C-alpha cells in the first residue's frame, strides 16, 4: 500500500471514531468513551451547560462593529506589540489558505491577517474583527477554549461545538500580561484539511515574544532582573524576568518567573521583597554588576541553589541602593552592550560586504548628528527598522529614546492618539490619566515612522505642523508641548507616485525626503552567508542552544531562494527551524523548514510568489532531487519534478495530486501545461 493509502486509512479510522463520539454526545446525551481529547470534551460540557445549541444560527452574527473601535482602544498596547509578530507568523503561512487572528481577553477579534480566499470563507461564520469568539458565543473553538482553559488549545474540524464551524482548524494560545492576567489570544486558523502539526509550536513561540515585549514595556521605568539556572538561557525567551521598584519590592514577573518563584515566595511568608527572596540585597547585586566585566552574576539562593542574574534598566539614585552601594546608572549604550548580540547594532555592525548596503551606510553616516530627516526605502522585510535603530545608535542621541510606530499596523482610529497622545477623558474609553504619544516619548531622541506612506492624510497634516513648529498638542488639549526629535521614516511605497495620486501630501514629502537611502532586497545581496550566520547565532542563543549549524542542503537552498519576504522572512524561517530542533539535534535540515518554501512558483517576470504547501516527506523529496551542478537548477524546475513524482504516486489522478500538494486542480493543470510546452 502506498504512503498516501496508509495515511488515508488512518484518517478514515479517526474520522469514524470521532463521528461515533459526536453522536454519543449530541444525540445520545452521554460522554463518549473514546476519541475526544479531554480539553475538547470539557469544553463541550461547558457549552451544553450554558444551553448552547450545536445548530445555533445566532452564532453566525458578525458582532457589534460599533464596539470594535472601543475594544481596539482598550487593547491598543496589545495590538501594537502583537501586530509585528502577527506579520512574521503570516509570512510563514502565506498562500496556505490561513488567517492569523488576535482577540482581546473576552474573545473579540481585534486584528487579523489572512489569505483572501480563506478570509472570504471565514467571514461567512464571522471569523473576523468585531466578532466575539468566546465559548459562550461560538461554542468550542480555539480562541474561546484557550480563554476558558487559560492554556493553548487546538480545535480541529468536527471538534468545534457548532456544526457550521466544522470546516475550520484552529490553533490558539492565551497571551498573559505582566501580572498574570489574560491580555488576549493569538490564533492561527485554516481549512481543516490544511492543518499543520507545527502550528502550535509557532503560535506558542510567537506568544512568548509578545509577552516579553509587553513585560518590558509595562516596566520600562523599573529595575528588570533577568535570571535562569543556566547562564546561556539569560537573554533568551526562556529567561525569568522580575520587575523591582525603587523600594526593592517585586512589582511584576513573567510567567517563567512566576512559576519559578511560586514555592520560594510561599517559603518567605508571602513577601515580595527582593532581599527576602535572594540572599543578597538588590544594592549589593547592583554593586557587583557595576564592578564586574561579566554581565551575568552568579547568585546563591537561600535553599542552596544558584541562579545567573542580569540587571537591566537601572535608574540612578533609587532608594533600594541606600546603605548598600553607590547608585548605578546605565545609559542606553551600556545597556545595549550588556544585551545579547544582535539586539543592538550600529551602522558599522551592519557592514557585511554588500555594495548596496555599503552605499546606504555611507550616506547615512554623513548626516549623523545633523538636523536632517532620513527616509529609508525598500521592500517589506529588508530591515528598515533595524537600519533606523542602527542610525540612532551611531549618533549623538544614542543614549536617548528610540521610539518606533508602524503607521500601517495601527488602526486609523487609533493612530492619532498613538502619535500625539491624549489627555484624560478626551474620548470614550480613554484612560483617566491620559497617555503620552510617540512624539513626546521620543523627546531628545529619535522618532521612527515605519510605512509612513500609509499614514492617513489628516494625520499627515498634523505631523507636518509638529515638524515645522517643533511642538505637539495631545488630543483633547489646547496646550502645545515643545519636542526635540530626530526624524527617521521608512516606506516600501514610491512616495513621489503617492503624491501624484493625492495619497500623500507634497509638503510633507519634501519635509521627510531630505536624504533617502535605498536598501536592496535580500535576493540582490551578496552577503547572504554572513546574514544567515548572524541570525542563526542570535536565534540559537535565544533558544539556549549551542553549536547549531545550517546543513549544506539548506544553505544551498537559502542562497538560491528568491525570498519574497526578504530578511524578515529569512529570520522567521531560521527562528522556526531552531524551535523545531529536537533536544539532541544541532543541524538544521530540510525537515525543520516551513513546507511553503519548497514549491515557489515563478511568474513570467521571474518573481517568485509564496509557495504552496507540501508535507515533510515531500520536502525531503524536493531536496533529494539532483542539484544539477552546484545549485544550477531553479526552484521551478524542482517543483515540476516534484509534481511529476506525486502524479506517479497517485497513478495520474489530478485531483488526488492537488489534494496531496495543497493546491487547486486548475493551478496544477496550468503548471503541468507550461512544463509540457517548455515553460516554467
Quick description:
With 680 residues, the protein is α+β, with helices and mostly antiparallel strands. Helices cover 41% and strands 15% of the residues.
Question: So what's the overall shape?
Answer: globular
Low-confidence stretches: 1-13, 314-343, 599-635, 674-680
Which structural class fits the helix and strand makeup?
alpha+beta
The end-to-end distance, rounded to whole angstroms, is 33 Å
Q: What about the largest sheet? A: 5 strands, antiparallel
Q: In angstroms, what is the radius of gyration?
A: 27 Å
Could you explain how this protein is built, in words?
With 680 residues, this protein is an alpha+beta fold. The chain is 41% helix and 15% strand. It is built from 26 helices and 23 strands. It has a five-stranded antiparallel β-sheet, with helices on both faces. A hairpin with a 5-residue loop joins strand 9 (297-300) and strand 10. Helix 4 runs antiparallel to helix 8 (199-218) and helix 24 (635-649) packs across helix 25. Residues 1-13, 314-343, 599-635 and 674-680 have low confidence and may be disordered.
Strand and helix layout:
Layout: H1 3-26, H2 38-49, H3 65-74, H4 76-93, E1 98-103, E2 109-114, H5 116-124, H6 135-138, H7 142-149, E3 153-156, E4 168-176, E5 182-191, H8 199-218, E6 223-228, E7 240-244, E8 250-253, H9 255-267, H10 274-277, H11 282-291, E9 297-300, E10 306-312, H12 332-338, H13 355-365, E11 374-377, H14 384-394, E12 402-406, H15 412-420, E13 421-422, E14 435-436, H16 438-441, E15 446-450, H17 457-469, E16 471-472, E17 481-482, E18 486-491, H18 495-500, H19 506-512, E19 515-518, H20 528-542, E20 549-550, H21 552-560, H22 566-579, E21 587-588, E22 601-602, E23 608-609, H23 616-624, H24 635-649, H25 654-661, H26 665-676
Parallel strand pairs: 11-18, 11-19, 12-15, 15-18, 20-21
Antiparallel strand pairs: 1-2, 1-5, 3-4, 4-5, 6-7, 6-10, 7-8, 9-10, 13-14, 16-17, 22-23
Helix pairs in contact: 4-8, 4-22, 20-22, 24-25
Amino acid at each position: 500500500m502506498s504512503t498516501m493509502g496508509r495515511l488515508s486509512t488512518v484518517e478514515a479510522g479517526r474520522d469514524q471514531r470521532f463521528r461515533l463520539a459526536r453522536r454519543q454526545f449530541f444525540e445520545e446525551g452521554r460522554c463518549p468513551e473514546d476519541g475526544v481529547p479531554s480539553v475538547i470534551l470539557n469544553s463541550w460540557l461547558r457549552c451544553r451547560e450554558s444551553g448552547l445549541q450545536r445548530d445555533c444560527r445566532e452564532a453566525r452574527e458578525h458582532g457589534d462593529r460599533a464596539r470594535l473601535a472601543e475594544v481596539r482602544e482598550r487593547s491598543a498596547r496589545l495590538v501594537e506589540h502583537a501586530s509585528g509578530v502577527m506579520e512574521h507568523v503570516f509570512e510563514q503561512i502565506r498562500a496556505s489558505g490561513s488567517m492569523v487572528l488576535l482577540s482581546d481577553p473576552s474573545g473579540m477579534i481585534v486584528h487579523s491577517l489572512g489569505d483572501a480566499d480563506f478570509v472570504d470563507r471565514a467571514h461567512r461564520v464571522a471569523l473576523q474583527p468585531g466578532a466575539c469568539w468566546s465559548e459562550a458565543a461560538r461554542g468550542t473553538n480555539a480562541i474561546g477554549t484557550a480563554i476558558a482553559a487559560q492554556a493553548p488549545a487546538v480545535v480541529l474540524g468536527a471538534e468545534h461545538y457548532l456544526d457550521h464551524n466544522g470546516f475550520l482548524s484552529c490553533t490558539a494560545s492565551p497571551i498573559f500580561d505582566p501580572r498574570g492576567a489574560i491580555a488576549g489570544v493569538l490564533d492561527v486558523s485554516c481549512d481543516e484539511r490544511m492543518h499543520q502539526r507545527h502550528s502550535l509550536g509557532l503560535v506558542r513561540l510567537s506568544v512568548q515574544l509578545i509577552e516579553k515585549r509587553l513585560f518590558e514595556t509595562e516596566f520600562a521605568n523599573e529595575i528588570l532582573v533577568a535570571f535562569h539556572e543556566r547562564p546561556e538561557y539569560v537573554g533568551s525567551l526562556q529567561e525569568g524576568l522580575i520587575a523591582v521598584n525603587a523600594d526593592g519590592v517585586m512589582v511584576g514577573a513573567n510567567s517563567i518567573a512566576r512559576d519559578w518563584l511560586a514555592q520560594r515566595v510561599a517559603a518567605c511568608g508571602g513577601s515580595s521583597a527582593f532581599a527576602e527572596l535572594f540572599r543578597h540585597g538588590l544594592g549589593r547585586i547592583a554593586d557587583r554588576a557595576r564592578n564586574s566585566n561579566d554581565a551575568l552574576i552568579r547568585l546563591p539562593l537561600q535553599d542552596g541553589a544558584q541562579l545567573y542574574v542580569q540587571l537591566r534598566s537601572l535608574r540612578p539614585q533609587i532608594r533600594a541602593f541606600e546603605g548598600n552601594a553607590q547608585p548605578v546608572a546605565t545609559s542606553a549604550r551600556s545597556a545595549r552592550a550588556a544585551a545579547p548580540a544582535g539586539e543592538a547594532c550600529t551602522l558599522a555592525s551592519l557592514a557585511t560586504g554588500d555594495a548596496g548596503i555599503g552605499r546606504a551606510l555611507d550616506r547615512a553616516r554623513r548626516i549623523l548628528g545633523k538636523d536632517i530627516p532620513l527616509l529609508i526605502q525598500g521592500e517589506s522585510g529588508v530591515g528598515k527598522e533595524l537600519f533606523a535603530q542602527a542610525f540612532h545608535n551611531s549618533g549623538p542621541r544614542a543614549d536617548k529614546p528610540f521610539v518606533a510606530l508602524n503607521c500601517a499596523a495601527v488602526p486609523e482610529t487609533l493612530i492619532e492618539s498613538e502619535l500625539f497622545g491624549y489627555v484624560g477623558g478626551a474620548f470614550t474609553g480613554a484612560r483617566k490619566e491620559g497617555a503620552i504619544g510617540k512624539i513626546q516619548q521620543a523627546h531628545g531622541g529619535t522618532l521612527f515612522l515605519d510605512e509612513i506612506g500609509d499614514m492617513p492624510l489628516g494625520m499627515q497634516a498634523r505631523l507636518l505642523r509638529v515638524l515645522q513648529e517643533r511642538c505637539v498638542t495631545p488630543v483633547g488639549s489646547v496646550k502645545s508641548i515643545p519636542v526635540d526629535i530626530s526624524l527617521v521614516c521608512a516606506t516600501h511605497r514610491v512616495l513621489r507616485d503617492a503624491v501624484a495620486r493625492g495619497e500623500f501630501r507634497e509638503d510633507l514629502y519634501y519635509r521627510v525626503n531630505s536624504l533617502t537611502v535605498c536598501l536592496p532586497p535580500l535576493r540582490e545581496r551578496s552577503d547572504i552567508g554572513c546574514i544567515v550566520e548572524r541570525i542563526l547565532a542570535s536565534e540559537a542563543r535565544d533558544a539556549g542552544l549551542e553549536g547549531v549549524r545550517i546543513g549544506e542542503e539548506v544553505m544551498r537552498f537559502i542562497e538560491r531562494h528568491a525570498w519574497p519576504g526578504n530578511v524578515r522572512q529569512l529570520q522567521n524561517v531560521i527562528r522556526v527551524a531552531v524551535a523545531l530542533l529536537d533536544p539532541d539535534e544541532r543541524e538544521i535540515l530540510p525537515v525543520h523548514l516551513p513546507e511553503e518554501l519548497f514549491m515557489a512558483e515563478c511568474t513570467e517576470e521571474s518573481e517568485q510568489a509564496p509557495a504552496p504547501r507540501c508535507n515533510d516527506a515531500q520536502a525531503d523529496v524536493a531536496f533529494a532531487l539532483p542539484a544539477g551542478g552546484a545549485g544550477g537548477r531553479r526552484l521551478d524546475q524542482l517543483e515540476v519534478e516534484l509534481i511529476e513524482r506525486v502524479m506517479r504516486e497517485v497513478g495520474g489522478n489530478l485531483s488526488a495530486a492537488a489534494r496531496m500538494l495543497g493546491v487547486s486542480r486548475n493551478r496544477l493543470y496550468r503548471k503541468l501545461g507550461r512544463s509540457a510546452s517548455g515553460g516554467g
